Amino acid sequence: MTTTTPNAIASVLSDLVGLDIITDATQVAKLSHDYYHFSPVLQPQLQDKFGDAVVRPVNEAEVLKIAQACVRHKVPLTVRGAGTGNYGQCIPLEGGVILDITKMTAVKWMKPGAVRVEAGAKLAALDKQTREIGWEIRMAPSTYRTATIGGFIGGGSGGIGSVTYGQLRDRGNLLAVRVVTMEDEPRILELRGDDVYKVAHAYGTNGIITELEIPLAPAYPWSEIIVNFPDFMSAARFGQALSDADGMIKKLVCICPDPIPQYFAALKSYIPAGKHAALLMISETCLEPLAEFVKEFSGEITYQKPAQEAGKGIALAEYTWNHTTLHARSVDPTITYLQTLFPDDKNLSLLEEMYHHYGDEVMFHLEFLRYGGKARPASLQLVRYTTEERLNDIIRDHESKGAFIFNPHTYLIEDGGMKMVDLAQLQFKEQVDPYGLLNPGKMRAWLERS
Amino acid sequence: MTTTTPNAIASVLSDLVGLDIITDATQVAKLSHDYYHFSPVLQPQLQDKFGDAVVRPVNEAEVLKIAQACVRHKVPLTVRGAGTGNYGQCIPLEGGVILDITKMTAVKWMKPGAVRVEAGAKLAALDKQTREIGWEIRMAPSTYRTATIGGFIGGGSGGIGSVTYGQLRDRGNLLAVRVVTMEDEPRILELRGDDVYKVAHAYGTNGIITELEIPLAPAYPWSEIIVNFPDFMSAARFGQALSDADGMIKKLVCICPDPIPQYFAALKSYIPAGKHAALLMISETCLEPLAEFVKEFSGEITYQKPAQEAGKGIALAEYTWNHTTLHARSVDPTITYLQTLFPDDKNLSLLEEMYHHYGDEVMFHLEFLRYGGKARPASLQLVRYTTEERLNDIIRDHESKGAFIFNPHTYLIEDGGMKMVDLAQLQFKEQVDPYGLLNPGKMRAWLERS
To answer: Strand pairing partners for B300?
Structure first.
């Protein structure tokens, strides 16, 4: 445990005079939290965790200053983007300084296929700029309007676009990261190649990401489409077939079984009760072959927004990924969720078994994504929460049957997806954050190192 | 059998006065053949098959006229592109008229993601036009400089680009086809959606393709790269890993085991004897992550041509797919080849077994391609030919072990890849070519219909 005394905080802040500092308790409290309340397990663990002050640097020189001050006075520093994470990634467990990166948004350069940008750029704003040259970011969470690229790389794993480009951790999806260290004399390091994985998805525990180089995807003319199906497994098989179709250009293949669409106020008129819906983003050039898939699986297209209306009216993507959970919880706050990758099972049999087994308790919202070169259904199941014990039983049941759970009910990096220590991340932390000041308490390997 | 009498031919030609007609025997002979001589089995079967005259229409109206004349006089009509096929697809078995489509090359329109073009456009020339708006054709055979789009759709199945976009027959890779029929009153039909498969890969047996609508891919800045490996299986596993990497943008992943590279005069200095080479086309934005794959599999990059030099010097693609066979045969004309899809085998074990089993007799040149959503190694094995019996033994051995052979030693559509009758193609032929005049003798289903 670090000790964050009022004196130490005061010393840090006095070192940082002239920077944009927030100490108002209400604002600091707001900027200490994220969407961890999706988890009834994390809720009691994190609700009373707050930083002592927020600093908002406008450039890397200021980031260096902040790092220097925190190291000098041994005050914890927790980096924050837009706070759209769900696992308390950016909630400071031991108080200290919150470094809010959202004022650093400059695009350093862009070219066909890649962009270099500061960590605080919002994904939608970045997309707007790169689309001017015909390109867009490869993948984004459903919170793309507010989420930052630094936060996404630091705490996310994939999203809209993953049905084509896989996960953030797949080689090629992150080209370079620039980080400020927390050594006695903080340094600026550029990590490239596989070295980027030393800090990617490390929740800011081993470096302050200030700048990133990410690949871009061609900005196809995306059409947004809803297809209804009479039964869940037809919708799921349609999703798998479409995701497996190498000739079909797609950005989103989301399946929402009944009754989930009934939580979507704005979409209800397109998805009657009892229907199971696919929410899709497909290149307009592929609409005719899409119609053949729809026919093959007995679906019915009930909504179609042409690409030229993108940005107007309903954004279908904002009903998918964890926005599905958000909409459900806005109607029924007792609902929580899980994150599951189903095995590479040719006929979706395990999914079918689980769907029937759990009935109304676990609603198998599916997001298709590519994983290791193959499209597979991931589920962000909506779970009607009763007790933590029952939730853990459900998790164990999934795991025993061969489904892989990325547990969203823990703030420890390793206990979420990896289930094992990432030695490279630990060693990098030992090197660049010798006092363990960066986002303390989140890396199990650090806590348990001998 | 149709009967092509000199009188009938004369009548057809007299109906076509004013069109570009070739009757010079040498030229007609040349325009009757393709690269069937890659197959020592097809060689004796096809070497004496020639058309009686070649007609080269400049527009669809002329195609209609030719169709009309051939139907009126019951003369066979065989459509020809550049004649770069390898199975005698365009060799007229019963003489008659050869319709050479190469003068019809107009681009009707193009837009981001799609182009509409006449069937005789050469692939490279088409690419040159679409690249002006930042797009290119999704896949092409290694003969892209001379091959026509109509010939590729009529007789090809995939190629350079298939590692990303799969096969031509995959939904989304062919949007529309316009065909002229051979009924008493020839008609013009537009086929869209799944209807395109009525005529795709039908060798021109059931309609004269005059125009096509095909999807386009983003024109990434392709870098051409040679990587050497100390052993074949490292090269093969590298190829599989790179092909499975969803974050890596690639157009070509070709593996040429030793001694195949020694047949490539222009590449020898980059691939010493004893080395197994990967020939790659990778987006320049992915070169740093590529280096990590190379390191992981103990490879060494010995050649790298930047994208800005595309079109100058060596074109690596022209050493891959069936150009590999071409180069080998130019040194040793006794070499022939097979076409094999290996099963979705996680550790390439069958490939390894076959590689060791056959030694020098079968050289497992690999082309990775996406098949049903998953990258798999296809092999265009070079085979040291001895007898047809031995070749058939090799084929049967592959099939018995679970490898799928697309036999290039037959001119029958069904006996190549499909192994079964395509009822939709047969029914379409019954409808639009009731006299069986289009490329007679190539569709087994038609020959054997009751």
So the answer is: B228
* Residue keyed to tokens 């079968």: B362
Q: Is the dihedral of CA A348, A352, A353, A354 positive or negative?
A: positive
A-B contacts (CB, under 8 Å): 131
Strand pairing category for B97-100 and B77-80: parallel
Query: Are B288 and A167 within 8 A, CB to CB?
Result: no
Burial (Cβ within 10 Å: 0-12, 13-18, ≥19) of residue A15:
middle
**Whether B247 and A288 lie within 8 Å, measured CB to CB:** no
Which residue in chain A has the smallest CA separation from B138?
Answer: A247
A291 at interface of B, judged by CB pairs closer than 8 A:
yes
Phi, psi of A218 (to 5 degrees): -60, 135
Domain ranges of chain A: 107-218, 222-405
Give the tens place of pLDDT for each residue, A300-324: 999 999 999 988 999 999 999 999 9
- Of A166, A248, A284, Cβ closest to residue B246: A166
Q: What angle do CA A249, A216, B309 make, to 5 degrees?
A: 100
Per the confidence metrics, is the pTM higher than 0.90? yes
**CA B234 – CA B221 distance, rounded (Å):** 27
Q: Cβ distance B100 to B31 under 8 Å? A: yes
- State how far Cα B156 lies from the chain centre: 3
**pLDDT at residue A2, as a whole number:** 54
Among B171, B175, B197, B345, pick the best mutation site for testing chain A contact (most A Cβ within 10 A). Answer: B171
Q: Does A239 touch chain B (CB under 8 A)?
A: no
Phi, psi angle pair for B94, to nearest 5°? -125, 30
- What's the CA gap between B180 and B61, in Å, rounded? 10
CA A188 to chain CA centroid, nearest Å: 26
Helix (H) or strand (E) holding A434: none
State the best of A171, A282, A283 to mutate against chain B, taking most chain B CBs within 10 Å.
Answer: A171
- Give yes or no for a contact between A88 and A48, defined as CB atoms under 8 angstroms apart: no
* pLDDT 10s digits, A276-286: 999 999 999 99
DSSP conformation class of B438: B
- What CATH architecture does domain A222-405 belong to? 3-Layer(aba) Sandwich (3.40)
> 3-class DSSP state for residue A382?
strand
B129 sits in which H/E element: helix B123-131
The answer, yes or no, to whether residue A344 has pLDDT greater than 70, is yes
Residues of A in contact with B175 (CB under 8 A): 285, 288-289
Among A137, A134, A131, A164, residue whose Cα is nearest residue A152: A137
Query: CA B279 to CA B368: how far, in whole Å?
Result: 11
Secondary structure letter of residue A256 according to DSSP:
E
Q: Report CA torsion sign: B205, B209, B213, B217.
A: positive
pLDDT at A3 over 80: no
Please give the Cα distance from A183 to A77 (Å, whole number): 13
Q: Which residues, listed in sequence order, are joined to residue B122 by a DSSP beta bridge? A: B148
Could you give the CA distance from residue B434 to residue A398 in angstroms, rounded to a whole number? 59
Cβ pair A354, A416 in contact under 8 A: no
Of the pLDDT bands very low, low, confident and very high (cuts 50, 70, 90), residue B218 is: very high
**What class has domain A107-218?**
alpha beta
Question: Distance from A171 to chain B by nearest Cα, in Å?
Answer: 6
Sheet with B300-305, strands from edge to edge, namely: B300-305, B222-229, B276-283, B250-256, B366-371, B374-379, B340-341, B404-405
Token representation of residue A432:
């660049």
